[in-house]
UniProtKB/TrEMBL annotation:
Entry's Gene Ontology cellular component terms: cytoplasm; ribose phosphate diphosphokinase complex
CDD domains: PRTases_typeI (cd06223)
Location of the Ribose-phosphate pyrophosphokinase N-terminal domain: 9-123
Entry's EC annotation: 2.7.6.1
GO molecular function terms listed in the Swiss-Prot or TrEMBL record: ATP binding; kinase activity; magnesium ion binding; ribose phosphate diphosphokinase activity
Protein name: ribose-phosphate diphosphokinase
SUPFAM superfamilies according to UniProt: PRTase-like (SSF53271)
Gene3D superfamilies: 3.40.50.2020
Leading EC class: transferase
Keyword annotations from UniProtKB, A to Z: ATP-binding, Cytoplasm, Kinase, Magnesium, Metal-binding, Nucleotide biosynthesis, Nucleotide-binding, Transferase
SMART domains referenced in this protein's UniProt entry, alphabetically: Pribosyltran_N (SM01400)
The species this protein was found in: Algibacter mikhailovii
GO process terms (BP): 5-phosphoribose 1-diphosphate biosynthetic process; purine nucleotide biosynthetic process; ribonucleoside monophosphate biosynthetic process
Domain of life: Bacteria
Amino acid sequence: MPIVITEAKIFACTQSKILGEKIAKAFGAELGNVITSTYSDGEFQPSYEESIRGTRIFIIGSTNPGPENLMEMLLMIDAAKRASARHITAVLPYFGWARQDRKDKPRVPIAAKLVAKMLEAAGATRIITMDLHADQIQGFFEKPVDHLFASTIFLPYLRSLDLPNLTIASPDMGGSKRAYAYSKALQSDVVICYKQRAKANVISHMELIGNVEGKNVVLVDDMVDTAGTLTKAADLMMERGALSVRAICTHPILSGKAYDNINNSKLEELIVTDSIPVKPLSDKVKVLTCSNLFAQVMEKVHNNQSISSKFVM
């Protein structure tokens, strides 16, 4: 018997509604109707206002803190399961709580694995996400995970800048693999920053491994939170003779004093995606949409086609 491919339906969690609309438009569909009722104490209840029985649905929502974003995704998945959806794909442009992917000291949780198990327990049958903080998080799932690379968005933009003496930089040792992949694609040099932290979000010391004199430097990272690391690295590189310093970061968390740090730094430009909504508080922040990437992958998943090309850096 031939496989009958039914209509796919796309829904979005509250904070990802704008991105969801972009993805749905690129997919060639309308964003599904979900109504969220909120109680006076803050408890909320999402409700699908159309039949999803027997269909494949995509639920779009980044799970960055606060916890209500993750909770809404879990409730949306659970509601879809109880409404007899055939396939439930959780589309998480940003997979939150991913920095807790291991025990780095005694008596702490591994939150990334807990989140993975919660998504599966709620009823997700597939996960689509982008630029995980650590690749091994894929192994926390028993369901299929499509881990996409934002390099397919950033590389064309970097090439369009046509920067002479281009050098790719990693703001820390952990990002060196990502930096080397970009440098290979762009045929450029690589430098690495070595940093020591006093505590989370606080850098006590930073050193530069490599030469940036006379170079146009592009820092590469998976996320930008307070922007402390990026701005400190940019200032250090300008002190060492760099001509310019830009940064590309997939996920713009931008918490705390992030915008002040960016505006007061020597960063020429911070290029991010819209995996998380960005506040227009800095002219230095340029947003590239990830909607086309997700729409293309979702269409291929729905039609049972290969998506291996989207895994190539």
